[in-house]
Design a protein that fits this description.
Layout lengths: L1 H12 L7 H24 L2 H11 L4 H11 L4 H11 L4 H11 L4 H11 L4 H11 L4 H11 L4 H11 L4 H11 L4 H11 L4 H11 L4 H13 L4 H10 L4 H10 L2
Helix pairs in contact: 1-2, 2-3, 2-4, 3-4, 3-5, 4-5, 4-6, 5-6, 5-7, 6-7, 6-8, 7-8, 7-9, 8-9, 8-10, 9-10, 9-11, 10-11, 10-12, 11-13, 12-13, 12-14, 13-14, 13-15, 15-16
Length: 254
């Protein structure tokens, strides 16, 4: 890939005024990159295989390659995203950001595709997506926890750290989507926001009142995290927990 960029600079500088060298070089570089990507696609008969091969050989040029591929084949965005992340997981955040900026699909679809490509990098996916389109935070949370529920606690923790003023909204959305892991989300949030125990516990219990087992586990988790017992009773009561649920909590306290 470097030889194509170098060639673009050579072509641009021959007979070109100095003030125009940069812009011409950039255009030539884009043209040559596009030609190179198309050539690789024609040879491999697959955009996915082509992207994986190019990034494998030229990881330093991954951003321009992904950007070019999405320009050339926007309808193949899932294949491009999956191939790029599979080839170099460390580039996950960049790939998601570029795809969203290109507007090739809804943010939620890009998030789901990226998580499926490399689930262990889910934190990078949601952080990049939320930073690129903060107005889509609700949908980003919902799709992310549904796609990778085992990482719901990490997703909630990551996004709440990046957007602390949206912590309650993030927790509400996540528990609404995957209530069966609410206790782990509570544990994750209390670890980084111990001073916001009232908001965390109240929100979690309120969103789980229809599932007694979930409420019980959330309250036990908060107690084990060090929330004062008297405060915990008040939080639970204010959030709609039943007298029976609160009584069970008290009885189980050593």
């Amino acid at each position: 890939m470097k030889k194509y960029i170098a060639l673009a600079l050579t072509v641009a500088t021959l007979g070109t005024p100095v003030c125009a060298v940069t812009s011409v070089a950039n255009e030539k570089s884009k043209e040559l990159t596009a030609a190179f990507v198309q050539k690789q696609v024609n040879q491999s008969m697959s955009i996915g295989r082509a992207i994986k091969s190019i990034i494998g050989h030229y990881p330093q040029d991954a951003e321009v390659v992904v950007s070019t591929a999405l320009d050339l084949y926007p309808e193949k965005y899932k294949e491009i995203i999956h191939a790029a992340i599979s080839a170099e997981p460390a580039l996950t955040e960049m790939v998601v950001t570029v795809a969203i900026e290109k507007g090739v699909a809804e943010c939620s679809s890009i998030v789901k595709t990226a998580i499926n490509a490399e689930p262990s990098y889910v934190d990078f996916v949601v952080r990049a997506a939320a930073n690129a389109t903060p107005e889509d935070l609700h949908e980003i949370v919902r799709i992310a926890v549904l796609t990778e529920p085992d990482s719901a606690d990490s997703i909630v923790q990551t996004l709440s750290q990046s957007h602390p003023n949206k912590m309650v909204d993030i927790l509400q959305t996540a528990i609404g989507a995957v209530p069966f892991v609410g206790e782990y989300m509570v544990d994750a949030l209390l670890a980084i926001f111990p001073n916001k125990a009232e908001k965390v516990v109240t929100t979690a219990v309120r969103e789980s009142t229809e599932q007694k087992d979930y409420v019980k586990r959330i309250l036990e988790t908060a107690r084990n995290a060090g929330v004062d017992m008297k405060d915990l009773e008040d939080y639970a009561r204010n959030a709609g927990a039943s007298a029976e649920e609160i009584a069970q909590l008290v009885e189980q306290t050593p």
